[in-house]
Design brief:
By secondary structure, this protein is α/β, with parallel strands linked by helices. The chain folds into two domains: 3-154, Rossmann fold (3-Layer(aba) Sandwich), CATH 3.40.50.300; 191-421, no CATH class. It contains 18 helices and 14 strands. It has helices at residues 3-19, 32-36, 52-64, 85-97, 114-123, 135-145, 160-166, 179-195, 199-204, 207-226, 231-243, 251-258, 263-275, 289-294, 304-311, 318-333, 371-388, 416-421; strands spanning 41-45, 69-72, 102-106, 127-132, 150-154, 247-249, 279-282, 297-301, 336-341, 347-353, 359-364, 392-397, 402-406, 409-415. The strands form three sheets. It has a six-stranded mixed β-sheet, with helices on both faces. The protein has a five-stranded parallel β-sheet with strand order 2-3-4-1-5, with helices on both faces. α8 (179-195) packs across α15 and α12 packs across α13. The chain is globular, with a radius of gyration of 23 Å.
Length: 424
């Protein structure tokens, strides 16, 4: 591409990133100190507008103090950028900023064959921090040229702790023991439950930002990239998942609903939505891999606010928003997440497979005041604990707290807002 235009883009972008409001410190920022000391390429992946560029700016300011190169490939002027243009870009960066050893590249998946340049430069001692919005593209290119030489960190919308920091309400050590302070935390929790944690939306409170962001994902990240023809079906599938948080699904039923010709097409569309971080799907847990992949899957959304803006379902489905909130926190904390069904068909919302194959069971219920609901949740957990040979489980509720002991089993009942404030 034209070198003068490329230089103009570099100058404008670096002015912009230098002025960016870095907002609150993300929970994961401190962990980057250990990544700076190793030669691996660091990849920050996640949905559009989760704050990846802002996190890059936080890393640059805290650890590099203007000793870096920055470039953002999410710029319409770069449509003709090809792999051979990386050398021209490097020359411009050298000319403008002198010799530095660290690159920060935003939305790298938009550059063709980017992994070739990075591998060559990495071999000569350069360090890279990358962001990207497509899990499949990133893993494919990283796998071909940078296997074993990269570390990927997934960035999600604000956690509840980050949300409170954004609101200027970071809780103290004993805040939940003080009635007034606990009431404030509960008020913020209900706001977080509905509005989610996408930084731009929380800052400007304009639902159109969420809708436009979602449209960008559909049309720029999926339709254009994968040359989708059945756009209407893709849109309907996205709305279906965002309207049915925490629901199980079968590909065959989705094919019938969307009137598509093939189950494989439906599977591809679901995969595209997952790769763009709009939704996540989980398997039913089984020690048999065959049973695991043949069972229905459950789907969750990356952000409650996004689901609410697209589907307008919060008032009717508060319980599923609670479950979605718990799921996203489990994603942040790591570990393998499944749901579980007992031999009798009783369902437990989450089975978390942790280190050394340790298993945790979590049920989510808005309230346990209704005896029928309470007995149903306890019955499912007791059966699951018996089958899995574990003696502890957790029920997360909107506001209940108690300990239930039955035989040699213990079920802890905890408010979700309290659980969210715990450190993983």
């Amino acid at each position: 591409m034209d070198k003068l235009l490329l230089k103009e883009v570099v100058i404008e972008q670096n002015k912009a990133i230098g002025k960016i409001d870095t907002g609150i410190e993300r929970d994961c920022l401190k962990s980057f100190e250990k990544y700076i000391k190793i030669p691996h390429t660091i990849v920050i992946s996640g949905m559009r507008r989760t704050g990846k560029s802002t996190l890059l700016a936080q890393i640059m300011r805290q650890f590099y103090h203007n000793q870096y190169y920055y470039f953002n490939f999410e710029d319409e002027r770069l449509t003709n950028f090809k792999v051979e243009d990386f050398n021209a870009l490097f020359e411009i960066l050298l000319e403008l900023f002198g010799e530095q050893k660290t690159f920060f590249f935003d939305e790298i998946q938009n550059a063709q064959k980017w992994e070739l340049f990075i591998r060559r430069m990495q071999d000569t001692g350069y360090k890279f921090f990358l962001t990207g919005s497509n899990a499949s593209l990133l893993s494919r290119e990283l796998g071909t040229k940078l296997t074993g030489r990269n570390i990927t960190i997934e960035l999600y919308p604000f956690s509840f702790n980050e949300f409170l920091a954004f609101k200027g309400a970071t809780p103290g050590k004993n805040v939940l023991a003080i009635t007034i302070e606990r009431a404030k935390i509960k008020k913020y929790f209900h706001e977080y439950l509905k509005n989610g944690g996408l930084p731009e939306y929380l800052k400007y409170k304009d639902a159109e930002l969420l809708k436009r962001g979602y449209e960008d994902i559909l049309y720029r990240d999926i339709v254009a990239r994968y040359e989708i023809k059945e756009i209407k079906s893709l849109r309907e599938l996205g709305v279906y998942f965002l309207s049915n948080l925490a629901s199980s699904f079968a590909y065959g039923k989705l094919r019938q609903m969307l009137q598509l010709g093939s189950v494989n097409t439906v599977k591809n569309y679901v995969e595209f939505l997952e790769n763009s971080y709009v939704i996540f799907t989980i398997n039913q847990f089984s020690y048999s891999f065959k049973k695991q992949v043949s069972a229905r899957r459950k789907a969750y959304c990356v952000d409650n606010g996004l689901a609410e803006s697209v589907a307008f379902q919060f008032s009717k489905n508060k319980g599923s928003f609670l479950e979605n909130t718990v799921f996203m926190e489990l994603k942040r904390r790591g570990g393998e997440v499944y749901y579980f069904k007992t031999a009798a068909g009783l369902e437990v919302d989450f089975l978390l497979k942790e280190e050394k194959n340790k298993i945790a069971l979590i049920q989510v219920a808005a309230s346990l005041e209704d005896e029928g609901t309470k007995n149903r949740e306890i019955r499912a957990l007791m059966a699951a604990m018996e089958e899995l040979k574990i003696d502890q489980a957790l029920i997360l509720t909107e506001d209940s707290e108690q300990t239930i002991k039955i035989k040699n089993k213990t079920i802890h009942v905890t408010p979700i807002y309290k659980w969210l404030l715990e450190k993983a």
